[in-house]
């Protein structure tokens, strides 16, 4: 039992890192399965390039779109934007663009992993490069005149021996590109994290408290919403079968829900920890929760918008 508690505490403490690690491992595993079971280079001049690029890039694009779809912030940003009178509130604003940029970076983890692992493996790149006219011309420079015609057969090990050795060069190029991509992502992530933490308007300890608050608010909101919805459903069903009038029920209005669903912006004048926190403090003042002077989107506070009633993005 003690070991189980230790594992659980480790998961709760590092759930973001573990989640990203799991996504990375699953993506790498998928790539290995695709390259070993599904991928088979056609070894023709017409099909090598498009076939290799499709396996290298199309799954990455699909994973990127899936990353967007699984993000709670995506649907927080989009839900209701096409409704009458809401388009101006949702679109063409700097904070929406910044939120989209952060969602894009988070969604890019799986696609980058796919491309990096595929490049390190080399199969997709070898197939695509052997069908590229420009690369073939460069690789065959100084070789026999039949080299260009033999190049599409190289990935299938069917080319002449004097041309087949180019396969090693293609794999080396692919792996170098893969390591460059990995290094670039690590450097960018380190720089981005360091700069965002450096520009954080709150201290390290307050940021830890803020994360705890966001987690507890999400849990309590879900619990209270479930209880409230259950009681309301029971009341409506009772009135339906008994033919009676429902008792007065205090439920947040559409505008109330809209207010707490807005994208979070930090304001040093009033350090609210969420849009719900801001709503209950400004409700009596009858102030709008929209943009105000001094509001700003802070990258290090991205977890605030990720807090949702449900555990999933939908």
TrEMBL record:
Range of residues in the leader sequence: none
Q: Cross-referenced Pfam families, in alphabetical order?
A: Ca_hom_mod (PF14798)
List, alphabetically, the GO terms of the cellular component aspect: immunological synapse
Q: Membrane spanning segments where? A: 20-39, 51-70, 103-125, 176-199
Q: Which InterPro entries match?
A: CALHM
Classify the source by domain of life: Eukaryota
> Which UniProt keywords are given for this protein, alphabetically ordered?
Ion channel, Ion transport, Membrane, Transmembrane, Transmembrane helix, Transport
Q: Where in the cell is it found?
A: Membrane
Which molecular-function annotations from GO does this UniProt entry contain? monoatomic cation channel activity; voltage-gated channel activity
Topology in the lipid bilayer is annotated as: Multi-pass membrane protein
Q: Name one GO biological process term.
A: regulation of natural killer cell cytokine production
Describe the family membership recorded for this protein in Swiss-Prot or TrEMBL: Belongs to the CALHM family.
User: What is the official name of this protein in its record?
Assistant: Calcium homeostasis modulator family member 6
- The source organism is Nannospalax galili (Northern Israeli blind subterranean mole rat)
Gene encoding it? Calhm6
């Amino acid at each position: 039992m003690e070991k189980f508690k230790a594992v659980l505490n480790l998961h709760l403490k590092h759930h973001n890192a573990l989640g990203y690690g799991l996504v990375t491992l699953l993506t790498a595993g998928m790539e290995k399965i695709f390259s070993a079971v599904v991928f088979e280079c056609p070894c023709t001049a017409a099909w090598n390039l498009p076939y290799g690029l499709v396996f290298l890039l199309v799954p990455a694009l699909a994973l990127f779109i899936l990353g967007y779809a699984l993000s709670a912030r995506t649907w927080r940003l989009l839900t209701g934007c096409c409704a009458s009178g809401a388009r101006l509130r949702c679109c063409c604003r700097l904070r929406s663009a910044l939120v989209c940029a952060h969602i894009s970076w988070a969604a890019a983890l799986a696609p980058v992993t796919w491309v990096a692992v595929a490049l390190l493996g080399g199969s997709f790149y070898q197939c695509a490069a052997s069908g590229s006219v420009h690369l073939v011309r460069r690789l065959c420079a100084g070789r026999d005149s039949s080299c260009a015609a033999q190049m599409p057969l190289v990935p299938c090990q069917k080319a002449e021996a004097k041309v087949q050795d180019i396969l090693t060069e293609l794999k080396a190029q692919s792996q170098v590109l893969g390591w460059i991509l990995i290094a670039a992502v690590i450097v960018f992530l380190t720089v981005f994290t360091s700069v965002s933490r450096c520009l954080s308007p709150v201290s390290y300890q307050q940021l830890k408290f803020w994360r705890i608050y966001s987690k507890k608010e999400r849990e309590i909101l879900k619990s209270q919403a479930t209880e409230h919805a259950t009681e309301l459903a029971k009341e409506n069903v009772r009135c339906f079968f008994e033919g009676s009038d429902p008792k007065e029920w205090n439920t947040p209005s559409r505008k109330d829900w809209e207010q707490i669903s807005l994208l979070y912006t930090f304001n040093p004048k009033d350090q609210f920890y969420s849009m719900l926190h801001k709503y209950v403090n400004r409700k009596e003042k009858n102030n709008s929760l929209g943009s105000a002077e001094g509001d700003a989107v802070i990258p290090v506070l991205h977890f605030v918008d990720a807090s949702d009633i449900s555990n999933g993005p939908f």
